[in-house]
Amino acid sequence: MLFCPNCANVVTVLPSDMTAQNKWTCPTCPFEFPMDFQVTSRMYLQRKQVDDVMGGEDSWKNVDSTDATCPKCDNSRAYFMQLQIRSADEPMTTFYKCTRTQCGFQWREN
């Protein structure tokens, strides 16, 4: 975002009408600045570290396995557990974890 040096409002792009150039213009004062070069910038936001709601690795210690295909490695077995994460009138959510230690992919249904 660029700001007007006179009144500190955000400047906007005014498309060229008769001229060959676009201009930065301030909506509140007569400030105009021709665009001589391309202005680009990119900022990557960092994701916050999220706590594991289900209890981390300890929650997967005493669970059963079932026939479920892993969407990442196509393994035919997966650990599963069911938790009520929505309101009481909604069905339980089934969480799966691939049984292959190299994969360990986690997914859910419902």
Automatic annotation (TrEMBL):
Pfam families: Zn_ribbon_TFIIS. A zinc finger (C4-type) spans 4-29. Zn(2+) 2 binds at C70, C73, C98, C103. The keyword Signal does not apply. Keywords: DNA-directed RNA polymerase, Metal-binding, Nucleus, Transcription, Zinc, Zinc-finger. GO terms for cellular component: RNA polymerase III complex. GO terms for biological process: termination of RNA polymerase III transcription. Its main location: nucleus. InterPro entries: Rpa12/Rpb9/Rpc10/TFS (IPR012164), Zn_ribbon_RPC11_C (IPR034014), Znf_TFIIS (IPR001222). Residues 66-108 form the TFIIS-type domain. One of its GO terms (molecular function) is nucleic acid binding. Transmembrane segments: none annotated. It is found in: Nucleus. Zn(2+) 1 binds at C4, C7, C26, C29. It comes from the Eukaryota. The keyword Nuclease does not apply. CDD domains: Zn-ribbon_RPC11. DNA-dependent RNA polymerase catalyzes the transcription of DNA into RNA using the four ribonucleoside triphosphates as substrates. Belongs to the archaeal rpoM/eukaryotic RPA12/RPB9/RPC11 RNA polymerase family. This is DNA-directed RNA polymerase subunit. The lineage of its organism: Eukaryota, Fungi, Dikarya, Basidiomycota, Ustilaginomycotina.
